[in-house]
Amino acid sequence: MKTTLITYCSKKPNLLLEKPLVHKQPRVTNKVPRERKPLHCKTNGDPTVESVSHEDKHLLMLLLGLSYWVQGFRCLPWMGVNFYMKDNMKIDSQTLQLMHNIGNLPMVAKPIFGIFSDVVYVGDKHRLPYISIGVVLQALSWGGMALIPSSSKYLPAMMACLLLSNLGASITEVIADTILTEFAKKVSPGSINIHSYAWMVLLTGGILGNVFAGFILKHHHPKITFLIFSLLLFPQLLISLVTKEHVLDQTNSKGTEYPKKIKKVIEKNLTTAIKAISKLRIFRLIIWVLASTAMVPTLSSALFYYYTQHLKIKPSVIGASKVLGMVGVLIGSFLYGRFFSNISLDVYSRGIQFLYAIVIFSNLLLINRANLAMGISDEACMLCVAVVAEVVGQMRMLPFMATVALGSPTGYEGSVPAVFAAGMCLSNIISELVGASLSSFLHISHGNFEGLHSGILVQFFAALVPLALVPRLPSSKPQG
Fold first, then answer.
1. 306: which DSSP letter?
2. What is the structure's pLDDT at 258?
3. Model-level pTM?
């Protein structure tokens, strides 16, 4: 989308008065005239954008890159949580899955954080203080988890730390996505390079996080992952404190409404966000994402215990599967942008959802030990299945996230994408809860995996059900 920049230069004219104006005396006042900020440029229909230095832009880009890198690197402590609870706290797979669900509840509150960041200032800043707050919450929670004794009676304290961690993560993720959208719209309009940059940095963080997780968990206690991640948060905090925010020049000005009329401002933004997502195109996308995810019960914890307890697959192999999966997502993202980005959403969704069902079904190779009959080791088979599952799972959501971002009205870049992200988190929680209930119904535990075969079949057929909703999707993408 090309944007024409119209430059306005305001100069006061020199008035040559032949006769002095003596009939009116100037009114004496103690008020100091308020300074006006010059408008350097203005876009067609867009808010004004102040001219900023390249250094300020680069510092903001550095903050964005570090935020997405840390977001991807969160897989390091979360893999540590899985092994810590299994090996040190001795909890079963259903409890582990339920703790993941409860811990993810703050992610559902993303629309609240998005709306607050749209309208509520912290001091004289708009977005960046929220990143600082989120980073501090994460550092406190992961540092606290490293101090909790390895006993099941401290499970409530562990749960509180996980909730606090995801609260901070959800805040930073919403603000990073918001700043990314604003930066792309107002500083570099029409450019997709910044979105590719963020996506690549996110995946790079995930790759490195999984590499370190596999190495650390093989040689050290899982708590080391908590300490390492908490220390890595401090550079992000420092940069968020020193970055200048005038690069963005948001449309929602602080004005005189704060804090007296803040409730009305939030209600207005919430109404606007609801109207935006109620548009037919975005509404159908959200419904399909919710349905295609929530309908499929997740058996992630049961499979994790099956791999590590029954098949005796080492943490380094688990980490390698995640690394290869992230590399696969990088390649898939490149191929999508190069060859498949112009495919209609209904055709793309039909193909990727069917492929997702096939990937789920392929888990039966390991469960039935058919891989051994074909001469494929358990480690190699698990790597192949896990890598393809990671790639397909990420690629299912890629075009929908971009579509919702493009459909966000100017000034509400935090609210609308946050609603979509909350819908994704909610659908994942529903899927996990249904999966935990299915595991309990089939009597799947760390010592009994006989029901896992039936659970995979239920997953496979459930993944085929959303194909009936594909014709209701829009066939084309909205234009930004």
1. I
2. 47
3. 0.70
